[in-house]
Write a structure and sequence with these properties.
The complex is a heterodimer of chains A (about 325) and B (about 525).
Chain A lengths: L3 H28 L4 H10 L6 H10 L6 H13 L13 H36 L4 H15 L2 H15 L15 H28 L1 H8 L4 H19 L1 H19 L4 H11 L2 H29 L1 H9 L1
Helix pairs in contact in A: 1-13, 2-3, 5-6, 5-8, 5-11, 5-13, 6-8, 7-8, 7-11, 8-10, 8-11, 9-10, 10-13, 11-12, 11-13, 12-13, 13-14
Chain B lengths: L1 H20 L10 E6 L8 H10 L7 E3 L5 E3 L2 E6 L5 E6 L12 H11 L11 E8 L2 E6 L6 H4 L28 E7 L3 E6 L12 E6 L3 H9 L5 E3 L3 H10 L2 E16 L4 H4 L1 H10 L2 H7 L31 H10 L3 E2 L5 E3 L2 E2 L1 E7 L4 H15 L3 E7 L3 H8 L4 E5 L9 H8 L14 H12 L3 H18 L2 E14 L25
Parallel strand pairs in B: 1-10, 1-11, 16-17, 16-18
Antiparallel strand pairs in B: 2-3, 4-5, 5-7, 6-7, 8-9, 9-10, 11-19, 12-18, 12-19, 13-14, 14-15
Classes of the chains: A mainly alpha (about 325), B alpha+beta (about 525).
Chain lengths: ~325, ~525
């Protein structure tokens, strides 16, 4: 019973966010400079081959000559019943365009998040445990350096060294397990600095908390304190960081897809924006909004499980 | 403890290459020809992606073009024109689609009927009648004599597909065509696997299996060529091509092709209406410097609109476009333009200045335009560079707001550049190039050229058209385009050829070294 209200609230929020995102996407596409029909026709037939008749043909066939509000209302009405239409460029169903690419994005994104955890977890715990030490300062410097390198540059460096020079891994693609290593590492490296700082602060705060010091004074071993007493509170900021991590994953993905030639959702979005492929852009926008809403909701649930204060607060509420 | 840890780390480090070698991509023993290019196969419709099918040898049109510009029959084994100069008959080869069905004239007519109104080149043919005259003869009757018709049939939109390639609504769904390779697998829009088609009517490919990989980013294509993951990587950035050559990991082939980078102007504006101003602007440009310093390919410096490769459309007797700042200033003075207080010329209250739209789709164009901005300033012409999405160009041409623009435009959508010259310089509604350019002599020459079937009579018409464009400069050519490819040493050097018409990657002729 306690969960029903927050779940319903989250669902309502997700729906409103999706509607807002769709509206913003549509408005942004309409506000962009250049002729919308021409962009679609150029993406479809190639810029060298365009003539006025082709552009007008596309304008009429895609319904771009209708009033803007009618176009918006039509698409939204159809989307509400699950029909998001066909791509203006490829004429394939939008969901057919998105599904295989979403799979690639989620796969590499998941692997990237694991790499980020593998890097940031130990580094953050070590820095938090030995706060103020040389190790802490060294890890902070390394994190700052890594955060300053754009993922595009980092990806290119990894390719230049590990693929082109050493021939250890493939340059590009997503059809073999080995081809997923470099993009996952590049993505993970881009996410690790922020995450490691969060872990560090969580661990440091937890180790400095009165309950931890009290346990140590009572003679509980250091490892037992770390694992049984300090770990759980330290998890709270890490979990709360999950939506930020998800957002960073999505942002970082375009560069990673470009460098490693992954056929994912990021490049599809960029291409569709350039081509003014309205149904694809709006569907991706809604999908991303729903995904982020799902991550946020899952984070809330997880936090309630981990943090008794939240459960207590919810109970009082 | 620390010694033991160090030893373990060393051992682990030594083992890493061995472990990762399990994941190395197959290379030397891989029998598949791996072709890398920027273009994604994101639609099964040849109107949109037929050029990929043609380039990798999966699709064929009725007529093709050899790298030397000669037309060759692909699905059409021969063609004839009646004495009325209106009725064409294309005799088909006895050949089969990749699904085993025989190619019939009805299949060809079905394809052409579907695409001809939507494809730029094919839609320019004044078709009065299109039908299958018998099982293997396609008849095309035009309303007016149209001599370049066979060349127009090289348009990739006219790739002939099998009846089984279409869905119930008549939309193409599968690339079932007639080329020397047939598709065995499609992975998204990025990878096409194909194998030699055993029933192909012509010579069979030397390498039986091919994989086409679309790689959007030029740097990644270059890295794949350097890492040995691509046997041929097309369309490299000039710097990347130089790096590959320096590394010696692959050979780089280069070819100057008929895609001039040029400045187009609104000739209805007083700044550009006078041909002396256009000539002065042309004389101000250091084409050799731009080709050397920005494009890293000195042969790219344009001396006229089209490069020597198009022998019929390149006239070596024409005085080449060159730099002569003194002559440029003299021409402007002769045209009545006088220096203002800030060095910019003026005439009758009109300053010699313009906004130049620079589309964002070609990274070299903004840099080239900046170089030209400094050179124009030397003769008193001020330009303001405005980066725009490329679609802003035709929109500006259409609504009359265009002042000037830089663009790269291909003149071989069909093998005969007349296919682009006609809409660009002899039409009342140009899409990309200089609005307001009307030259009755040129229009008459273009019309006569289209209606003339005698090659001997066409040669002087070509020369007249080229000379007029060089003299009147409705567009100011700056450089030609460099088509290039990195070729693996796995391939025999003499088996790889670049096609200046960009219609084919010539894969069937490639063989292993």
């Amino acid at each position: 019973m306690g969960l029903i209200r927050p779940v319903c609230w989250r669902l309502l929020q997700a729906g409103l966010v999706a509607l807002a995102v769709a509206t913003l996407c549509f408005a942004a596409l309409q506000a962009m400079p250049g002729d919308l029909a021409l962009r679609v026709a150029a993406a479809r037939y190639g810029e060298d081959r365009l003539d006025s008749a082709m552009i007008e043909d596309v304008r009429h066939a895609a319904g771009l000559d209708r009033p803007v509000l009618v176009q918006y209302a039509d698409w939204l009405g159809a989307a509400a019943t699950g029909r998001v239409g066909r791509s203006l460029v490829t004429d394939r169903p939008v969901l057919q365009e998105i599904a295989p690419r979403l799979r690639v994005t989620l796969l590499v994104g998941g692997l990237g998040a694991l790499v980020a955890l593998a890097l940031a977890g130990p580094a953050g715990v070590a820095a938090g445990r030995w706060q103020g030490s040389r190790l802490d300062r060294a890890l902070a410097s390394a994190a700052a350096l890594l955060a300053a390198v754009p993922s595009f540059v980092l990806g290119s460096l990894l390719v230049a060294v590990l693929a082109v020079r050493l021939h250890w891994l493939p340059v590009a693609g997503s059809d073999t397990a080995s081809s997923l290593v470099l993009p996952s590492v590049a993505l993970g490296c881009a996410l690790a600095p922020g995450l490691s700082r969060v872990v560090r602060h969580g661990v440091a705060a937890s180790l400095a908390a009165p309950y931890t010091r009290f346990a140590r004074m009572r003679g509980v071993s250091r490892w037992r304190v770390a694992l049984a007493i300090a770990a759980r509170p330290a998890l709270v900021p890490m979990l709360a960081y999950a939506p930020v991590l998800a957002m960073q994953l999505l942002e970082g993905f375009v560069a990673i897809e470009l460098v490693f030639n992954l056929d994912g959702i990021g490049l599809l979005l960029v291409r569709s924006l350039l081509a003014r492929d309205i149904p694809v852009v709006m569907t991706i926008g809604i999908l991303v909004a729903l995904l982020l809403a799902a991550v946020t909701a899952a984070t809330d649930m997880a936090l309630r499980l981990v943090d008794p204060r939240l459960r207590a607060a919810a109970g009082r509420g | 403890m620390s010694l033991s840890l160090t030893r373990r780390l060393l051992l682990a480090g030594a083992a890493l290459p061995a472990l990762t070698s399990r994941f190395r991509p197959a290379r030397a023993a891989d029998p598949v020809l791996r072709v890398v290019a920027p273009w994604e196969y994101d639609s099964p419709d040849p109107i949109e992606t037929g050029y990929i099918l043609c380039r990798i040898g999966v699709g064929e049109t009725l007529v093709g073009v050899r790298p030397d510009g000669q037309l060759v029959g692909l699905l059409a084994e021969s063609w004839t024109i009646d004495p009325d100069h209106l009725t064409w008959r294309f005799r088909l080869r006895a050949c089969r689609f990749h699904d085993g069905a025989a190619v019939t004239a009805a299949d060809v007519v079905k394809t052409l009927e579907r695409v001809r109104s939507k494809a730029e080149s094919l839609s320019a043919i004044p078709v009065a009648e299109l039908r299958a005259e018998d099982e293997r003869t396609v008849l095309i009757r035009t309303t007016t004599p149209f001599a370049p018709l066979p060349g127009y049939l090289t348009d990739y939109a006219g790739v002939i597909l099998a009846p089984s390639a279409y869905d119930a609504d008549g939309r193409p769904q599968r690339p079932i065509a007639t080329g020397p390779y047939r598709v065995t697998a499609l992975q998204g829009s990025r990878t096409i696997d194909a194998e030699a088609f055993p029933d192909y009517w012509g010579a069979h490919p030397a390498i039986p299996r091919v994989r086409y990989i679309a790689v959007v980013l030029g740097d990644t294509r270059a890295s794949m060529a350097q890492a040995g993951e691509a046997d041929v990587a097309f369309t490299l950035l000039p710097q990347a091509a130089q790096a590959i050559e320096r590394a010696g990991s692959a050979r780089v082939l280069r070819l100057t092709i008929p895609r001039p980078r040029m400045m187009t102007m609104n000739l209805q504006l007083p700044q550009f209406a006078d041909v002396r101003v256009r000539r002065a602007l042309s004389l101000a440009i250091d084409r050799a410097g731009i080709a050397e310093a920005i494009l890293h390919h000195p042969p790219s410096a344009a001396t006229q609109l089209l490069p020597p490769l198009l022998a019929g459309w390149y006239d070596p007797a024409l005085p080449p476009l060159h730099r002569d700042v003194g002559e440029a200033k003299r021409l402007l003075a002769e045209a009545g333009w006088q220096p203002g207080a800030d060095g910019v010329l003026g005439k009758d209250g009109q300053r010699l200045q313009a906004n130049v739209l620079v589309p964002s789709n070609r990274p070299e164009l903004p840099v080239m335009t900046q170089a030209m901005q400094a050179e124009f300033r030397d003769i008193g012409f001020a330009i303001e560079i405005r980066p725009v999405p490329f679609s802003a160009l035709p929109a500006a041409v259409r609504d009359g707001s265009l002042q000037a623009a830089m663009l790269a435009r291909t003149y071989v959508n069909v093998p005969d550049p007349i296919g682009t010259i006609l809409p660009d310089f002899a039409s009342d509604h140009p899409v990309w190039t200089s609005p307001g350019f009307v030259d009755p002599g040129l229009r008459a020459a273009v019309q006569r050229y289209i209606e003339t079937f005698d090659e001997a009579a066409r040669t002087p018409l070509r020369k007249q058209i080229v000379a007029t464009l060089q003299d009147q400069l409705p567009v100011i050519p700056v450089s030609w385009f460099e088509h290039n490819a990195a070729v693996s040493t796995r391939l025999a050097a003499d088996s790889v050829t670049l096609d200046p018409f960009e219609q084919s990657y010539m894969l069937p002729a490639m063989r292993w070294a």
